[in-house]
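Final report, closing paragraph on structural work. Over the funding period we assembled a curated collection of sequence-structure pairs, and we close with a single example.
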Amino acid sequence: MRYVLILAILVWGFLVGWLAWLIVRGGGFRTIRWPQAVAAGLIGSFVGGLGISLLNGDGLALRPSGLIGSVIGAVIVLLIWGSIQRRRAR
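Its predicted structure, as stored:
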């Protein structure tokens, strides 16, 4: 049962990262940097989804507020990540 949960978390991170990548970077399916998108999805999902769920009083239950928070968190992670990469490129 634990393996199914881990797989579900990874798939959710993949989907959220892909959606956040499309929102922030645009472009098509081939322009996505998959490791960065999945990492942003997992980190953003954890921080944004959990944060918004707790602020709304939903706790750890799976609610739309947490799902929307996951995408918002992943978008913020990608924006921060892009900013850091641009600074390093200078």
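The mean pLDDT is 80. The CA atoms of residues 13 and 41 lie 4 Å apart. We thank the funder for supporting this effort.
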